[in-house]
Amino acid sequence: MDVHKSGFVNIIGLPNTGKSTLLNSLVGEKISIITCKPQTTRHRILGIINEHNFQIIFSDTPGIITPVYPMQKIMMQYVKKSLEDADIILLMTEVGKLRNFPMFFNEIKKINVPIIILINKIDKIKMKYYNNILHDSVNYWKKLFPNSEILPISAIKKTNQDFLMKKIISLLSEHPPYYPKELFSNKSERFFVNEIIREKIFCLYKQEIPYSVEIDTILFKEKKNSIYISSYIYVERDSQKLILIGKNRNSLKKLKFLSIKSIELFLKKKIELEFYVKVSPKWRYNYKKLKFFGY
Ligand SMILES: Nc1nc2c(ncn2[C@@H]2O[C@H](COP(=O)(O)OP(=O)(O)OP(=O)(O)O)[C@@H](O)[C@H]2O)c(=O)[nH]1
Ligand SMILES: [Mg+2]
User: Fold this and answer.
1) Ligand 1 atom with least separation from CA of 156
2) Atom of ligand 1 lying closest to residue 38 CA
3) How far apart are CA 82 and CA 161, in angstroms?
4) Mean pLDDT of 241-250
5) Distance between CA atoms of 59 and 79, rounded to whole angstroms?
6) Which of 43, 61, 63, 86 is deepest in the core (most CB within 10 A)?
7) All domains in the chain, ordered by first residue
8) Tell me: the pLDDT tens digits for 85-127?
9) How far is the CA of 14 from the centre of ligand 2 (A)?
10) Are 210 and 37 in contact (CB under 8 A)?
11) What's CA 253's distance to the chain center, in Å?
């Protein structure tokens, strides 16, 4: 009989480097939301690949920042935990961006599990500069983490993804599956609904609105041919509520339209969606409220 391998492969790195894009691409499901803005991911989200002879549990994590307010402090606790319980670390970096970590540099240095440094977005470099820019990036990371492997990738184009998968499987230890084999994530359908709505808000609104928003889906009711979903959208101030709703409720209508399309694609079922916009002053600074929101 084949041996069974299993382990935790945690994706860590600076904001906006493509961690969530890679997770989704590896697992083949839209598990994590992706936007062009930094600090999109706020939670630790598992994406699980199940095969008869292995189970890989990937973790997407929030981008590493120096935390200012309590929500960001909790986000960095998720990163810290992911550094502690990894069997393999995928350290996500972006080609040509030679930036160190504001937090966790020493923790990463001290880690005694394999680290694979991924140099992402190589599709963005022009051919004539390719060798120079890639060479500089490889040298930069090799100097900082001499014992790690370095692999240039494109999460969007799946460049070197097969190679990465083979490498990960070769590094995994023999172990029974940690999770039931039918699971592809640890999060609930409500969580994914919240995240999809938040993704649309990140894309539709500017400045501080995306960062001041939290979603709480209060009703998720399966009907015969559809699912009825009712979600609260929390902002921090009345002025933000006005912007979110927009003139003649036009902004909210657009948000609803885009959210419905994406949620239906994810749940593979027709949905009815109701929004209620609420103000919860300074929720990002309040540990009790953060706990209520699932942090
Ligand atoms: N050109 C190019 N863009 C990429 C690639 N991977 C990700 N991106 C883009 O980079 C942006 C950020 O991607 P995310 O996957 O959300 O990045 P992240 O590291 O999860 O960001 P945070 O959650 O904020 O830490 C998005 O606009 C992606 O489309 C890639 O391989 N090539
Ligand atoms: Mg992300």
Assistant:
1) 31
2) 24
3) 22
4) 97
5) 10
6) 61
7) 5-171 (3.40.50.300), 189-292 (3.30.300.20)
8) 999 999 999 999 999 988 999 999 999 999 999 999 999 998 8
9) 10
10) yes
11) 26
